[in-house]
Amino acid sequence: MAGNISTLKAADRCECGPCVFPCCCYRYGMDTIPHILVVDDDPEIRRLLGKYLDGQGFRISLAGSKGECEAKLAELKIDLLVLDVMLPDGSGLDLCRSLRGRMPQLSIILLTALKEDVDRIIGLEFGADDYLGKPFNPRELSARIRAVLRRGRAEPQPSGSRQYVFANYIADIESRTLLAPDGSTVDLTGGEFELLVVFLQRPGRVLSRDSLLDLTQGRTADPFDRSIDILVSRLRRKLGDASVFAMLKTVRNKGYQLAVPVERSN
């Protein structure tokens, strides 16, 4: 991966051409530049990723261990965590699960060994928003970061489509919150909320895994990509639908379907 980073030219720093920090095209503006924490035990990879992402217009902090990561999270306001699975003082997967329980709004992208499918699947089940297998092109990491942040910071929707009511749940699109029938807030990750919105906007339609991946993450699936299946499983669990599948139905060889009525309100 270091080789991929080191061969990038200055003109490749941003999709719109050469630019300086903060990135001239970054959609959130100078006052809200996302803060990314990169956690990897390899100092060279850490340094190169930090330098590249800084050039893409992000604020960057670095950590080389689980302990350093926890300290940075306690000290700084971090928007997204790039987390290596293998750390010298603990498992990145265990840290991911712990952080998802304590910091549900923190976005997490896992870095895994290319062939370690088990780590990827477990990571998604533990609440990671996305994963990337090593070695990878840092451009892809930057694109994944932007996609995850877009899901977590979606712009307000036009009036008339701000709330969806289904099975006595209320999804507020502008505030990106989900209220349960008892009035409590259901903690959803950015990816889970984005997936829910896709279903709410298309009630009754059978949506394939490929179309769901494209609509939520803007990318196509490889033949062994299970990220949508795991997101659906997590969403079912949080909706209390994990055993009966009354709301989110699996349509054999087709995909998934939201099978309850949906009302749109202001």
Tell me briefly what this model is:
The protein has 266 residues and is of the alpha/beta class. The chain has 9 helices and 14 strands.
Give a written overview of the molecule.
The protein is α/β, with parallel strands linked by helices. The chain is 36% helix and 21% strand. It has 9 helices and 14 strands. The protein has helices at 2-6, 43-55, 66-75, 92-102, 117-125, 138-152, 190-200, 209-217, 227-238; strands at residues 35-39, 59-63, 80-84, 86-87, 90-91, 107-113, 130-134, 163-166, 169-172, 177-179, 206-207, 248-251, 255-258, 263-265. The strands form 4 sheets. It has a 5-stranded parallel beta sheet with strand order 2-1-3-6-7, with helices on both faces. The protein has a 4-stranded antiparallel beta sheet with strand order 10-9-8-14, covered by helices on one side. Strands 11-13-12 form a 3-stranded antiparallel beta sheet. Helix 6 (138-152) packs across helix 7 (190-200) and helix 7 (190-200) crosses helix 8 (209-217). The radius of gyration is 19 Å and the shape is globular. 36% of the residues are buried. The model is unreliable at 5-31 and 154-161 (pLDDT under 50).
